[in-house]
Structures are given as structure tokens and as C-alpha cells.
Amino acid sequence: MPILFDQATKLFTLNTANTTYQMKVSDFAALLHLYYGDSIDNMDIEYLYMNIDRAYAGNPEEVYPDRTISFNVFPQEYTGYGVGDYRINSIALENEDGSRGADFRYVGYEIRKGKYSIPGLPATYCDDDEAETLVITLKDKVTELYVELIYGVFNKKDII
């Protein structure tokens, strides 16, 4: 199976013939990008990311007083907007009330057989047994805005 999810560690591993792509859900529901490169089987490499005191960067409210956790330095898979990450954001938006913040946190996933398609856009095609699709859902709890991250994995063709 090219897409694996370890419920105990909340680790997503996407494998192709020669590569591995890995993400993990943090203790406070942030989706972290851990690795993309040569195949590492199903080894959890979260140990490569070290938490150190980052007093200069904003910390999420739920981790206070731990100053080793900051969205500004976390390897987020998909960043929010206006919540302490000062790098280039994945999204820019304006909510109905004029505010611009969005704090996307993990709420669930689905693994599907076959390759996803988006109507009206160019796409690759295959038989259901040639690919799997991972859909990860993130949500901003204040605005109830959802984001779906979609990953198509062609194991034998070495494509994600």
C-alpha cells in the first residue's frame, strides 16, 4: 500500500518505488511536513525536527508556556494566515466579518483507491489499482472554513 497512516503516532507515509513523503499531525493538530526524498520505508523521522526555545516567535495559545513551539518555524504542510507564521502563507483571505485570520488544524483524512480528478482541469488517468489518493482535511475552528489537501500516489511510476 503506497499510503499508510499510523493511528498511534498520527504519521502519514506516502511511498513510491523510490521515494517517501512524510507528514505528521502534532499534539495540537498542526499538520507538519517531515520528509520528502529517497525511500525510508516506514521509519518515523520526526526526530530530525528539534524543538528549541524560540522566545522571539509567537507561540500557539494551547502550548503556553512552552516556548519551543512556534508556527513561524514549524515545517507546516499548509500554513494558515495571521496566526504567527510570518513566512509566505499558503492562503490569503478575507472573512465575512473583514478579519483575515485562518488557523487550519487537522480534522481527518481519507484514503481512496485510484487517482483523484478535479472537473475542468487537466489530469493524469489510471486504473484504480495503479494509484491511491490521500485527502487530508484541515479546518479553521472560528470561521469553519475547510481546506482539503489531495495527494495522488502512483507507486510503480514513482510519482506523487
Walkthrough of the structure:
The relative contact order is 0.19. The two termini are 14 Å apart. The protein has no helices and seven strands. Helix content is 0%, strand content 32%. The radius of gyration is 17 Å and the shape is globular. The strands form two sheets. Strands 1-2-3-4 form a four-stranded antiparallel beta sheet, with no helix packed on it. With 160 residues, the chain is mostly beta strands.
Measured as a percent range, the helix fraction is under 10%
Question: Structural class of the helix and strand makeup?
Answer: mainly beta
- Alpha carbon gap, first and last residue: 14 Å
Low-confidence segments: none
Strand content: 25-35%
Largest sheet, in brief, is: 4 strands, antiparallel
Radius of gyration: 17 Å
Number of strands: 7
Strand order across the biggest sheet? 1-2-3-4
Mean pLDDT: 85
Number of helices: 0
Secondary-structure element order, as H and E? EEEEEEE
